């Protein structure tokens, strides 16, 4: 297939070649309409200025891209919020993009950011680093990863101590007498999902807890997989006495299932979540969590990116993760008569697409309230 040229972009956008060139070089003397049409045409045609031409550019656009995995996930919403604040204070504007846990959608947004001549990109990467992500690296556009990394890709990152956080959670549950601990893991296509699963298995082995592989369910960092994972684990012939979920949305899904089955927390089941969203502090009982700092993540990511734009060398940062013990964990239950499943109003597991994000809850809530939002 023939490589798209500047003339092709101009023709599709309905502008002159000179206008297309000005837009793609970040020249300020262009209209909003022209910039939009040229950017869309460049994305559709897969047009990217070559690396040599880009290296010759002297002026910066003073804009950066921020690509989050799922804007409905409170953790990433907080990263985006503080990234915008930090960028604004540095005199930068951000272009916020939602990959929606999709490599294809991520690639489309990266192409758009390149067409808009973003000076650099903060991103929670999807997939293995192929596609448009590789193109960014070839072009020399500064990148900072947040929350996740990509094997074999040397990019500075801001992550949390997944191993330390999970280890603290397992140690806490084992200390309460739990031996069968169910784990709703994140997707193994992500470094975060892989790290937290390895950390869980290591901690279980270290403390001599039950290593039954049936106690592990792979989710996808969404409410619906938390629901599916909790159902699977609670329906085992010998169900766990505690559940540990690898992120906040899957924790909400697990809570929904326990509420639906009239399983008392923590009397019948202990639950530990990952990410300390506001809703967890407002629930009754409040949820024990592994807490790390998304606000600091967003702030540091932009600070690292601005240093890179100024030609400075930067190092990756691993932020501490701390267990926050609240009311959702207690001694292992001696009950063995786990309530039978109660049919839900709808067969499809709930999700949060189109519903208010949990981090927007502004009043005290009970598990029932969250369940009604998700059902």
Helix-strand blueprint:
Blueprint: H1 6-13, H2 17-24, H3 32-45, H4 51-55, E1 63-68, H5 74-89, E2 93-98, H6 103-115, E3 121-123, H7 132-139, E4 143-146, E5 157-160, H8 162-175, E6 181-185, H9 191-206, E7 216-218, H10 223-234, E8 242-245, H11 248-260, E9 270-274, H12 278-282, E10 288-291, H13 294-309, E11 317-319, E12 322-324, H14 367-374
Parallel strand pairs: 1-2, 1-3, 3-4, 4-5, 5-11, 6-7, 6-8, 8-9, 9-10
Antiparallel strand pairs: 10-12
Helix pairs in contact: 1-2, 1-3, 2-3, 3-6, 5-13, 8-9, 10-11, 11-14
Task: Provide a brief overview of the structure.
By secondary structure, the chain is an alpha/beta fold. It has helices at residues 6-13, 17-24, 32-45, 51-55, 74-89, 103-115, 132-139, 162-175, 191-206, 223-234, 248-260, 278-282, 294-309, 367-374; strands spanning 63-68, 93-98, 121-123, 143-146, 157-160, 181-185, 216-218, 242-245, 270-274, 288-291, 317-319, 322-324. The longest helix has 16 residues, at 74-89.
Can you describe what's shown?
The structure is a single chain. With 375 residues, this protein is of the alpha/beta class. It has 14 helices and twelve strands. The strands form two sheets. The chain has a six-stranded parallel beta sheet, with helices on both faces. Strands 7-6-8-9-10-12 form a six-stranded mixed beta sheet, with helices on both faces. Strand 9 (270-274), helix 12 and strand 10 (288-291) form a beta-alpha-beta unit. The chain is elongated and about 75 Å long. The model is unreliable at 336-365 and 371-375 (pLDDT under 50).
